[in-house]
Amino acid sequence: MSTQWKIPLFFLSSSLGDEVCYPRLGCFSNDPPWSGIPGRLLTGLPESPEEMNISFSLYTRETGNNSQVISAINSSTIQNSHFSSHRRTSFIIHGFSSTGKKGWVVEMCLLLLEVENMNCIAVDWKEGAKGTYVSAVNNIRVIGAEVAYFIKTLQVKNRALYSPREIHLIGHSLGAHTAGEAGRRVRGIRRISGLDPAGPYFEGTPPEVRLDPTDADFVDVIHSNAAHFPATGLGMYNTTGHLDFYPNGGTQMPGCNDLLLKMKRSDFEDRLADTTIFGSCHHSRSHDFYFKSILYPTGFVGYPCETYEDFKSGKCFPCPKQGCPMMGYYADRFPYKLKRVNQKYFLNTAADPPFASKSMTFVSYSHWKSDCLGTMLFCHFYKHWLRPVYTKYLDVEIDPKKTKKVEFLWNKTMFTLLWARMGAEAVNIIHGEDGRW
């Protein structure tokens, strides 16, 4: 008589070498690198799909604001739904202490349908995400396996072969690593967008544990609450995609009043282990930015730079010959997106919706005239009309079409010559009706 798997099959010991197996999905152990390595001293094993009550809700233009619950286990629900194999499919995956039944996940699906005729599937694993953070970290392996199983079902059972290159996975926090787990199991997925991938128990871990560039043909990442010394955030700081965007430096977002934690990382992880609800405006900004990028296709230009300090000093302007990518939904339009992995891009955003990058311009000033160029305010002051002797990057809102004059109030001491020391104490932007100087 053949041996059948039981549901669920748990081993209660927390020692290394334990594993649990589930039908359709396979076995999950707590061997390294899943546990027992520096930065990932986890206990426990993932819960069963039934315990987590995982569900997939389909949104299409035909369903309107409603959805259809579909299941890979009962593939007839897919065949009898409005899912179309002739359209691309996006999966939206939430993170810790969240849900796929309402809130930003549903809103994201509905907005995507306004700009593209697609299948949008909201993945809900609320029951597996509402315990401690550690249990949720363990559970995403099963969630990722379920998403992968769903994609494989689409490939073989939905009337016609459905290619993974029609699939786009969008995941926030733990949902980003869930997408990576699915991509590890199903090769050739077109794109994964990681929205502030969770940092604790993932930062510095091997690629198979976390989201990484090999999980899809193209991986783009937004870092909005990165754990960057001395602050401890909920997101990753290290690059983990082809294009990694760091709005406002990637750690603290303007308009958020949350206090960033300052403590040893080990203490931070210990606190997370006992946490049941943990929210952060900075952490959520990543999906806010992504949402708004759908509405503002040119509103979030990222500049190639090594550090945010270099970006703020103006060392990274203007865009190189190949151009600059847009952070968010339209990042895949960048022609050089696959040139290499771990490309870092920085930008500043506004504090309030729609958050789009501030409208700024380069300004070159001489004794004769001033010209407005580019997309950032960058001022060159020339001596003898030959070379710049003073350069200043100013992060201010400006509309070059309506700007009449840019006035600089100088910081000059009686002990310096006119051009020996310069420092603009204040900048006044003067607008005119036609914008001419």
TrEMBL record:
It holds the Pfam family Lipase. It catalyses: a triacylglycerol + H2O = a diacylglycerol + a fatty acid + H(+). It is found in: Secreted. Residues 1-17 form the signal peptide. The active site is at 173 (nucleophile), 196 (charge relay system), 283 (charge relay system). Belongs to the AB hydrolase superfamily. Lipase family. This is Triacylglycerol lipase.
